[in-house]
Design goal:
175 residues; alpha+beta; 4 strands; 13% strand
Length: 175
């Protein structure tokens, strides 16, 4: 653990302020988008709406995790999945703070945390995660997703890239 991390405490790393801002922005944008699509635009009543030849808007409530795995119809099941999302977010934050995360790692973790918390809020508020965006081409359809999902995927991609950067730096060191 770096001296700067020790001085700030074990939950507050070097890039924690940036990570907190990004996580909050993802959470706010995700929830505002879901509110607008559900309560203002009324996507649930409209059905599938074609936006472009490859993008449709449609409301799907996912009561499981990715690809509807581990479906949970009950409120207790949704509470369990929301709790897991919150616990995973806390664990990621602790990892970031204790690892002395790089700027890219902190941003990536913040994207994942913001997305996970956005989907956890849906579980408590709606009984499942609200997904809206359907990409398709040549008869093939990708799964329906939301802004939180995009942030999580971008965060995972950032973590993978950050880990490759670290291994490339290690490979360049002389033996």
């Amino acid at each position: 653990m770096s001296e700067a991390t020790r001085e700030r405490g074990w939950l507050w790393g070097e890039h924690a302020r940036l990570a907190l801002i990004i996580a909050l922005l993802v959470l706010i944008v995700d929830q505002a988008n879901k509110w607008w699509l559900l309560d203002v635009y009324g996507i649930a009543e409209r059905g599938r709406v074609t936006v472009t030849p490859f993008l449709d808007l449609v409301f799907v409530k996912n009561i499981g995790i990715s690809y509807s795995l581990f479906d949970q119809d009950s409120f207790a099941g949704q509470l369990m999945l929301a709790g897991f999302g919150a616990l995973a977010s806390l664990a990621l934050w602790v990892w970031m703070a204790r690892a002395g995360a790089s700027r890219l790692m902190a941003i990536s973790i913040a994207l994942i945390i913001g997305g996970a918390l956005g989907n956890a809020i849906d579980r408590l508020r709606l009984g499942g995660v609200a997904d809206f965006y359907s990409l398709h081409a040549f008869g093939f359809y990708w799964y329906v997703f939301n802004i939180a999902d995009v942030a999580i995927v971008a965060g995972v991609a950032g973590l993978l890239y950050d880990s490759l950067l670290g291994s490339r730096k290690d490979a360049a060191k002389p033996l």
